[in-house]
Amino acid sequence: MATIAILLHHERREAHTLAIEAVEWLMERTHEVRLPKEDAAIIDRADLGVAEEGLPDGCDLAISLGGDGTMLRTVDLVAEEGVPVLGVNVGQLGYLTEVEPSELFTALERVFKGEHLIEERMMLDVRVGDGVEKLALNEAVIEKTPAGPVRLLLSLDGEFFTTYAADGVIVATPTGSTAYSFSARGPIVDPAHRAMVITPVSPHMLFDRSMVLAPEATVRLEVQGHRPALVSTDGQRLAELTDGQAVECTAASIPAKLVRFGGNNFHRILKAKFGLSDR
Description:
Blueprint (H helix, E strand, L loop, with lengths): L2 E6 L4 H16 L3 E5 H6 L6 E2 L10 E6 L1 H11 L6 E5 L14 H9 L4 E5 L2 E5 L3 E5 L2 E6 L5 E7 L2 E8 L1 E5 L7 H4 L12 E6 L9 E3 L5 E6 L4 E5 L2 E6 L4 E6 L4 E5 L4 H9 L6
Parallel strand pairs: 1-2, 1-4, 2-3, 4-5
Antiparallel strand pairs: 6-19, 7-8, 7-18, 9-12, 9-16, 10-11, 10-15, 12-13, 13-14, 15-18, 16-17
């Protein structure tokens, strides 16, 4: 018997239906099933709801029913406990999900037989001030408020590098290189790599290029001047910084664990996303 966590997209009915089917399928096979309380309420299974902080305790697998956003939420809740995540693509084609809804139960049978791989993805350890720390699979973003563009002093490994005058700066993982960093004209990095990608957002300066750094690097961005900056990780607000306050990013000591079944989905998805032809 395994303990399985299920998380679902709150607004997609297909995800709700699939969650109900998955609960029944798993419980028929005597597996323990749990959902965050809010997710459990959506499918009228309050009896299976648990607090988010207790969700990964003793969990063997987490199933994400949605798109990349649901995957990020799932990883955020279970990564620290080393729980592998199986992503089911309910919606638009995503970079993180592994199987289609029609393939879920075949995929679960393969997982229980051990016919799967665990792909480890580098995460960021993001620290703000005293005691505020968060892991991120995609990126940390330090960006402007309605007050206007910000000035951010960038230090690398404790040594001052440059000052950005920009709408913001993104510190991304290879996984996050196809997210916000890409929309800001950052490079695409195969997620099998370990690296940090620094990409300025609408920089008001001559130096406007992205930088790809070694995973051992320490990236520090300090706010300079009267305009504050907002810090977010994987799309979730973390803090507001004022003059002299900083955020520090390093490679996390633990990876995100994603269930895979072989092959390189990243290249196939990238090709499909951009409509690249076979010839």
